[in-house]
Every structure is written in structure tokens, then in C-alpha cells.
């Protein structure tokens, strides 16, 4: 018979602390939802109060308000993600499975890039994009995103590819398979969890980025991203309708929720696999 667990002060304190942390974490999200279904006047006069009736008008206006910026953000994320995954898979395979001169030096340089703070690269990136004539275009975001988001992905992919069994690749080479065939038909299918992990982390980072789009896209609202439009207005640089802003935040979060939820199983597998093999 299972012995009853003794409930002590430490057990109660840990549970109370967990509940308190969960409350602190989720309370802002609850308030965001509460704000999105109230008129702006009611938000200002009774911020913590519950609405007497659901004010759907906020969501109707928010769809028109953020539909174009969300489309811009998704376009940038999709094109950037394609470039990131191509570079990450090829570079990770080269570092993890192939032997060539200067491999350790190149990989050390990749690791060294991680030591450079993101803010130090803003001015050089701006100068490069400006000289290329790409300011106020989606490519002003896409090219720096591909260059910046690939580093962590290469490290994860290299660790994953290096941990794959050699027997699979040796058997394929005995049958006459080329190096590219081994990469495309063996390594890439097996690396789906790690590539999805890289993809999710990259998309979340790019979609939520505010600093670089604000610097690179200074033209009209037609080219601006979701975070630019909503954060600028939330800071008082446009509309002051907080109910509209709250509804816009909720609508803009839906693409990320769909992308993350649909790939969550592979994301967890990739994180665990990368941690174990690394």
C-alpha cells in the first residue's frame, strides 16, 4: 500500500510560490483580453473592472488596422526562414559530417559571432543595407535576418548531424551515393525536429522584432511590420484607443500560436535532441 505523502511547510511553500508565479505570468494576458472587449472610455475609467457586455467593435477595427502589417511580417518571416534553413542545414552538415581544411577555424569563427551583442551590429547593418539601396523594402529585413539568425541554428545542426550514426552514411556511400545524396536523402529527413526547432525560434524572434524594422523601415505604413505599427501606436505615436491596440495584439499573436502549436511536438524533440547530442 502506498504511503501517504507528508505535507510539510516546504511542500506548501513551493505550491504557493508556483501559484503566485503562474498568476504573475498570466495576469497581463488576462488583462489584455479584458481590455480588448471593452470600449476605450471604460478602460480609462475602470481598468481592472470586467466589461458589462462584449465590445466586438475593437476586433472589427483591429482587423483592418493590422491586416496589412501582419501580411508584411509573415512575408518577411517566410522568405527569411527559407534562407535560414537552407544555410543552417548545409553549414551544419558540412561542419558535422564532412572533413576539410580550416574546419575548426571556421567553426570557431561561427561561435565567436555569438559573443557579439546584437546592438553592436545595428549601425554596420544599416550602412550595408543603405549602400545596397534596400532601405524601406522587405529585403532590408530579410537579408540581415538570414545573416543573424543562422548562427545558433548552425551550432544546433552541427551537433545533431555529428551525432548521427556513421553506419548509415557508410552504407550509402558503398552503394555509390554522393555526398549531396547523403545530405538530401539521409541527413535532412532525419534532421526534421532540429530544423523545425531552428525555424520556430527564428520566426518568433523575427516576428517580434521591433528595433531593426523601426530603423530600416522609415517610410509609409504600407511596408511596416506588425510590431512596428502596434508598438508605435501603443506608445502614443498614433491612435490612443487602447481597446483597439489590445485587440490588435491578440489578432497579431494568432499566426505565432498556429505556427508554434502545429510544430510543438517536433520543437520539443529538437530541443531535447540538441541538448543530448550537444
Describe the structure.
The chain is an all-alpha fold. The protein has helices at 9-36, 40-45, 57-97, 103-113, 122-131, 139-162, 166-174, 179-190, 192-207, 211-216, 226-234, 242-262, 264-277. The protein has one domain: MetI-like fold, CATH 1.10.3720. Helix content is 74%, strand content 0%. Helix 3 packs across helix 6, helix 3 (57-97) packs across helix 9 and helix 11 runs antiparallel to helix 12. The two termini are 42 Å apart. Keywords: Cell membrane, Membrane, Transmembrane, Transmembrane helix, Transport.
Brief summary:
The chain is 74% helix and 0% strand. With 278 residues, it is mostly helical.
